Amino acid sequence: MEITIQNTQSLYEKLLATPEEKRGEFYEKEFLQPYHELKEKYLPFNPEWLGALPLTGHDKEMEEALDKLQAIDAWKLAKETIQNAGNRFKTAGVPIPEKVLLGIFLGDSTTLASTQGIMGFGGIPGYIQIVIAPNENSLSMLQSAIAHDFHHNVLFKNIDWNFMNDITVAKYLAVEGLAESFAESMYGFEFVGPWVKEITTEDLEKSRAIIGEVLSVKGFSEVQKYIFGDQVLDYEVIELTGTPRFGGYAVGYHAVQAFLKKTGMSVEEATLLDGEEIMEKSVFFK
């Protein structure tokens, strides 16, 4: 597997030296050009994608964020994480992408407050984007978040169904549950996302009850309501279902954990299974 870590540290330093009126053009050409395939898909690509900082008016925040990322050698950690994650799948005989490009983007701490300063996207094999507002929590979760999104890369390389049209609630639960379980298997429960670690027992049970009735609901526009829960997404307002915020992520994680314990399979092996089978055999909703 060929791993490319985009040198966003250097790019942000050049961006800060660029006149504000020219930063949009610079960002489009230098930051986003390598991700042309993503732009050709369905993603709403703009500088604030996934909670990234606006290009102007935040120079001091950018400088401080770069210093914090440089202090932990974030770009080196990113490469090591993907190398280690890839080896796990190779050992298990699971096909992985031939190439992976990863970019670390600077995040807006206010926008990312609900996820403790970190978000990512790995839904198209070969590409991973991490958006981080560096703080004690987000920096500690960086490798876990990368492992989570690398799992998405691997899973989507191995499916034969269309994500937007064929996705069901059960499949999406498995997508997120497997990714978080894989990250946990590498770095421990301490470093899983707050969408799993910090959900209350009450909200988890509420989410399980609601989601358990809609496992066969199909199509991304409907399914997302139960995965993300009742919140305003950055690209649209979704209909409320009563599902707690990020409830589907927590339910997916616990359902996958139940499946792995019942079957004795590794998370790598389970990655090749159909998500609906995983949810059924987990008996999490019985």
Task: Explain how this protein is built.
It is a single chain. With 286 residues, this protein is of the alpha/beta class. The protein has 2 domains: 2-157, no CATH class; 163-282, no CATH class. It contains 14 helices and 4 strands. The protein has helices at 8-16, 23-31, 36-40, 59-71, 74-92, 136-157, 163-166, 169-187, 194-197, 201-211, 220-228, 247-263, 267-270, 275-282, and strands spanning 2-5, 99-106, 118-121, 127-132. It has a 4-stranded mixed beta sheet. Helix 5 packs parallel to helix 6 and helix 6 (136-157) packs across helix 8. It starts with a strand and ends with a helix.
List the SSEs and their pairings.
Elements: E1 2-5, H1 8-16, H2 23-31, H3 36-40, H4 59-71, H5 74-92, E2 99-106, E3 118-121, E4 127-132, H6 136-157, H7 163-166, H8 169-187, H9 194-197, H10 201-211, H11 220-228, H12 247-263, H13 267-270, H14 275-282
Parallel strand pairs: 1-2, 2-4
Antiparallel strand pairs: 3-4
The helix/strand series, from N terminus to C terminus, equals EHHHHHEEEHHHHHHHHH
Structural class: alpha/beta
Number of helices in the DSSP assignment: 14
Q: Provide the β-strand percentage band.
A: 5-15%
Strand order of the largest sheet: 1-2-4-3
Mean of residue pLDDT?
A: 93
- The total number of structural domains is 2
Shape, principal axes of CA atoms:
globular
The helical percent reads 40-55%
Number-wise, the strands total: 4
